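Q: what sequence does this backbone want?
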């Protein structure tokens, strides 16, 4: 027999996890920075934001606002990746922006029971794109170009769909 208080606690825990996940997603995407990163191999760069449903990672992005309470000598910019594996949404980050092959991400499961995550990106012409950078964009500064808004749709097994529209600062 499960006590009523245990059910309440389980539901409260789930609610906190969902709220914290949505808050983190909104925070990361709203603080996108136009800072591309060097690829681990070679001299090419990865865009400040890269998202493609065909990729194992939902999105890789550079954002500002990485807090530094200890005053460690490092950037306030952070490279983050989101991935969906086995119905779990993971957030990974690296302690350096321009990674090497030996740089391992710090990975955290943010939320379980996730059916899907869909991202859409609005460009400066107010056109929605399913991937970023959009196909056909070939400007020399494309690695630095950011969308003006991001639509995040989480579909959870127990909550259904949650949609957030995030304005990108800048």
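A:
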């Amino acid at each position: 027999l499960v006590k009523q208080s245990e059910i309440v606690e389980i539901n409260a825990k789930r609610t906190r996890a969902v709220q914290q996940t949505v808050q983190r997603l909104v925070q990361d995407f709203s603080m996108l920075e136009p800072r591309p990163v060097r690829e681990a191999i070679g001299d090419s760069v990865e865009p400040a934001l890269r998202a493609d449903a065909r990729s194992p990672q939902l999105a890789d992005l550079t954002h500002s606002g990485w807090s530094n309470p200890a005053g460690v000598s490092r950037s306030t910019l952070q490279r983050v990746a989101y991935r969906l594996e086995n119905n779990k949404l993971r957030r990974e980050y690296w302690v350096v922006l321009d990674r090497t092959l030996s740089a391992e991400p710090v990975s955290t499961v943010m939320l379980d029971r996730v059916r899907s995550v869909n991202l859409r990106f609005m460009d400066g012409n107010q056109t929605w794109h399913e991937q970023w950078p959009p196909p056909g964009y070939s400007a020399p500064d494309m690695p630095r170009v950011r969308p003006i808004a991001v639509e995040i749709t989480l579909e959870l097994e127990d909550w259904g769909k949650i949609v957030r529209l995030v304005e990108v600062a800048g």
